[in-house]
Prior knowledge:
mainly alpha, 4 strands
Amino acid sequence: MIAAVLGIGWPTLADAVGLGSIYALMAVGIGLVFGVLRLVNFAYGQLVMAGAFALAFSSERGWPLWAGILLCLGVVTALSLLMDRIVFRPLREHSPAVMLVATFAVAFLLQSVALLWFGSLGKIATSLASLNRPVTISGVDIRKITIVAFIVAVCCLVALVLLLNRTNVGLHMRAAAMDFQTARLLGVRANRVIASAVLISGVLAAIVAVMLTVQNPLVTPDFALRDTIVVLAGVVVGGMNRLVSATLGGFAIGFASGLLGGALPTNQSQYLPSFLFAAVILVLLIRPGGLFTRAGRTAVERV
C-alpha cells in the first residue's frame, strides 16, 4: 500500500526497510553510550569509517572475507575501548559540554588520520560486492544486503534485549542508565558498566561498517558522516530517554530516507536532507520529548 501511494516499486520499499535496519543498529550503538554516560558520541561515524577502511584494506590485499570482517571488528572495538580509556574516562567528572567537545575533537582527529593515511580519494572495498546483487522473491528483485541487514538487525536487537534483561551486566547497565550515581552507591562497578556499553557499541559500529560498505564500496574519510548526523536526528526524534524509542527513531528516519530517496527524481535527490530535517523540526515542535515516548513522560537531560 505504501509503495502504491508513493508511486514507488517494491524493491525501493525493501531497500528502505534495509536502510532503516542499518540506522536502527546505529541508533542502538549511540543510545547505549548515551544511556550510561549521558553523552552523544559524535565520533561514532568515524568508528564506522575506520571499520570500512579496514574492509577496504583487506580487500585490496586479497584477504578472505572472514579475515576482513574480523579485522574490521578488531579495529573498531579497539578504537572504541581506547576512546573510552584515553578520552572519556579522564573527563567523566567534568561537565557534559567538555565531553561533547571531546567527541568532536576525536571525530576530526580520526578523520584527519584517515585523510593523511589513505588520501582524499579513499579506497574501494570489493570483497562484499556479491551482497549487492538482487534475488527474486515472489517476482520482486530484492538486494541480498537488504535481507541480510534486516535479519542481522533483528538478531542483534534480540540478543541485546536478552543481554540487558537476563544478565548481571545488563541489569547493571539498565540501573546505571536510570540513575548512575545511585547505582554506584549500590555497588555497580562504573568502569565495568561503561566499558561494556562502549564495547557493545563498537561491535554494532563494526556490523554497520560492513553493511554500509556493501551499499557504498567507495570508502573516503567522510564515510558514514552524513548517516551519523541523520541517525542522531532520528534518535532525538524517537526519544533519547529509552533505548527502544531511540532504536525506533533510527529505523523510522532510515525508512523515511529510503522511501523519499526512491520517490524523488534523480535530479531532485539533493533536496532529500531538507525534507528529512524539516520533518525532524516538525516532530520536535509537536512532541519535544520524542515521537515514541509515552505521553507525559519527561525526557532525560540531553547533551
